[in-house]
Amino acid sequence: MGSDTDWNSNLGGGFGSHVETDEFFHGTGEAVDSLTETWFWNFHIPQAAINCFAYCWVHPALKTVTSGLMIYQGIKPSHLACELFEMRDYMSLSVIGDGSDIQLPNGFRAKVIKPLEHVHLSFDDPARQTTLAVDLMAKSIPIMRANNQHFEQVMHATGTLTLRGQTHKIDCYPVRDRSWGEPRPENHAPYPPYTWVTGTFGPDFAFNIGSHDDPTRKPDWAGIMPAPARIFNDGWVLVKGEQRRVIRATKLTQREFPLCRPLRHEYEFEDSAGEIYKMTGRVVAQTAWSGWSNINTHLGLVEWDWNGQTGWGESQEVQWNDYVWRMNRLQPDV
To answer: Which pLDDT does position 185 carry in this prediction?
Structure first.
């Protein structure tokens, strides 16, 4: 991807280091409008094909906050088709305070119980018969990028969700992430889709990859638009607590048109210990959301298959105007 999107990349290689205060609001960085700070929390209920995307996105220079959550079951054609969509834009910085107890006027709350170890999420909306109480307990230390401005972390999520009147037990291993101090320009990007995925197979193995399709695997955009100069941006593997960087990754995503929505991911990647992994992922729950107007992001719950073992994780694929326009031009008239 271009230099304006290097906030997706671990350009320094290796891992950074974390401190307890990384849990809280930093509010630092070059004072440009696109300066961004984020919290992402997630849980899923695989047996019911339910996924939750909870997010807090701050523009410190503008002193504005976009935050909330969406919970969806199965495949949805749009964000408003989710069982619950409750995202608010243009809130003031007062809703996050120092980041230790984020409370939104829509009833969502993310309270830090112990920094980098325990976060409690809650939500209550009697009108939509939806309540949430979930504890996220760390199963790993933060997996920090080399620039010390972004980490992911494997968590154990337990609790209960009542969704439109139906109660579900939560017990899963999601991956959260946290970032600060870098601009995220909203410029148009003339690239094919960029996909960020996570996967966990219980508490002892997890992975994360951020990349485009490999042009040598003949993706749907091959011959229609040029490949980016850099296909693989970032990735890690966590093996029984040992953090390893992904040094090579190749990916092919199958999509359904005209919505351009991902159906299936096929990955091969190698870690810094020389281990090679082949994964296939089937998207079992999905919705779309334009976090900002110049993009569309397909969010999904993925069922991973790794040598006959089943894991679960997140799929977030960003698409821009050129790709969606070009691919829709190829579709036959209905």
So the answer is: 92
